[in-house]
Amino acid sequence: MFYGQMSHPHGQTAATVAKSPPVTDNLHTFSPIGHLRTPFADKFGIPRQPSLAPHAIATLQLLPPYDRPEAVRGLEDFSHVWLTFVFHQTAGQWSPTVRPPRLGGNQRVGVFATRSPFRPNPLGLSLVELVGVDTTDKVTLTFRGVDLVDGTPILDIKPYIPYAESRPDARSGFVGGAPERLEVIFSPAAQTQCAKCQTSHPHLAELITEVLAQDPRPAYADDPQRVYGIRLYEFDVKWRCDGRSAFVESLDTP
Ligand code: SAM
């Protein structure tokens, strides 16, 4: 099923190209250029796409032999970059169809029609804001709005080029627009706990609000009494959800 009949450089039509022998499947190995340090200690609760939690700040210290300051020369002139990474916590668990949370978790679509982590090659791609390039000692980059678990192996960084890549009028299938947000309400105890770590984590309350506003519950969950836990930094944030409001009850330190 071809949309439009693409002509092939050697005069073949897309249909004949599809009949050509498959490319020999040789395996490639990649070595991470670094491991991303993020606020998300485990996968549950991470926003499903980047930029949804602007206070999800992450750092990447480049590993030898890639940690050459000249390798990032000029990168500071770009505001956003693409991170190519490994879904290392789901590697090897691919499925031809998956059930996206945006479809309520019970409708299956092809894995290639989603951004699911359960892919044949567990490669991910996130467009994030670049907020710092530090080459004074090591080469350390700082990003904002990440959707990756702490320790995610990063394979590549590429600058975002709006004229070539921004397509605001593109069709986006079942995804539609940004997900509806929950109102997030802190208990007095949780407010006090956030205030106490203002020095070590100055934007913790904002991060909690941005993450819970995404309603990270499993798609089928709707028990207002059920208390969920999300690990952010060293905190175990305990919260409930009732209707369109999330209630932050406490921040426990395990
Ligand atoms: N923006 C990326 C993309 O499109 O490839 C990621 C989208 S994916 C839906 C985002 C989810 O991947 C997060 O909510 C989290 O549950 C999961 N995730 C994040 N880091 C991961 C990792 N290192 N291994 C496996 N899953 C991960």
Automatic annotation (TrEMBL):
CDD domains for this protein: UPF0066
PROSITE patterns, sorted: TSAA_1, TSAA_2
The family this protein is said to belong to: Belongs to the tRNA methyltransferase O family.
Species name: Silvimonas amylolytica
InterPro entries: TrmO-like_N, TrmO_C, UPF0066_cons_site, YaeB-like, YaeB-like_sf, YaeB_N_sf
Name this polypeptide is given: tRNA (N6-threonylcarbamoyladenosine(37)-N6)-methyltransferase TrmO
UniProt cross-references to SUPFAM superfamilies, sorted A to Z: YaeB-like (SSF118196)
Key words, A-Z: S-adenosyl-L-methionine
One Pfam short name: TrmO_C
Chain spans, region Disordered: 1-22
Domain TsaA-like positions: 30-169
NCBIfam families hit by this protein: tRNA_TsaA
